[in-house]
Amino acid sequence: MKEIKILVSCTEESIAVENSIYLNIIEGANLLSEATSLLSDNTGDNISDKNHMYCGLTVQYWAWKNVKADYYGLCTDKKYLSFSTEDIKYSPVEHWIDRRIIKAGESDQFLGYITENAAYEYLNEKAIREMNLTNNEVIQSTVESNDMIISKHITLDTSVLEQFEDYVPSVEDNKLKVTLDIIKELTPNMQSFAETYLNGNIFYPENLYIMKSELFNEYCEWSFKILEELENRIDNSMYSVEGLKVIYHVSQRLLGIYCTYIKSQEQYRVSELNWGTIEYTQKQYLPKPVFDNKTAIVLASNDTCV
Fold first, then answer.
1. Mapping DSSP to helix (H, G, I), strand (E, B) and coil, where does residue 139 land?
2. Closest to 50 (Cα-Cα) out of 28, 73, 33
3. Tens digit of pLDDT for each residue in 94-114?
4. What one-character-per-residue DSSP string does 229-295 give?
5. Exposure string for 30-65, b = 16+ CB within 10 A, e = fewer
6. Which of 3, 109, 166, 268 has its CA 20 to 30 A from that of 283?
7. Which helix (H) or strand (E) element contains residue 132?
């Protein structure tokens, strides 16, 4: 049986899936003021200090350098790939439409696509059951029958390159164009795949994936090289907090480029899975009694009371 490790990138101590396949990792631990009992991305070889730019990628980097497995996956405490045998994307009970604002001007505009995926208030028993997150037999079979798993694609009304220009806030010029130039310079063998994906309208949303170790290592080697060079070429001294995350937004498109490359090789098995979104990730605690004794307190009132 192959060892599968799916890293769950967390910004706080979140509700966890009770399954050893999933590892909850605190991202940006070096930037936090409070200690945590969870694993964190600031041990061993790490880039935890860059979390304000790289977001959950600091967890990906940490896993690349410090975790041994046959398959590596990445999700967040708010988004999980679903291993359901049914299409939860169109669940009649829990239905979510993600409409993302792309520009704030005289009037708000909507992004040129709508994603529909299952949404849950909490990562509760119902959510875990519907996404099949504890059925190791199904998870193991699904993962081992593929070389790469990625989120189900969306067909945009525009190209991935144009969509990025409208989507990423607080950045004056399209850093994805700069990224394409870097790919041409540093890894020219990936240029055609980058152009195919960025100029096309098939888009893989979110940074959700599972890969065999050899692909994961190759992807990390390539993508972090590109992102590091992009970071060096950006003057982000005047960027907003959200603008600094342009590195992370670029990384989502790099994943799509890499998937395009893998599919072109015609020797790898690639599948797409739906995903579920969690609205509230904090641990829930039952209220404790105010008094230790069992004395009943009765209050009487009527409509005339003030």
1. helix
2. 28
3. 333 343 333 333 334 433 344
4. HHHHH---TT--TTGGGHHHHHHHHHHHHHHHHHHHTSSS-EEEE-EEEEEE-BPP-PPPPS-SS--
5. eebeeeeeebbbbeeebbbebbbbbbbbbbbbbbbe
6. 3
7. none
In tens, the pLDDT along 216-272 reads: 999 999 999 999 999 999 888 888 888 889 999 999 999 999 999 999 999 999 999
3-state secondary structure of 62: helix
Token output for 218: 């190759």
275 φ, ψ to 5°? -145, 160
Helix (H) or strand (E) run with residue 38 in it: none
Residue 63 identity (one-letter amino acid) = A
The DSSP output letter for 145 is T
The three-state secondary structure class of 48 is helix
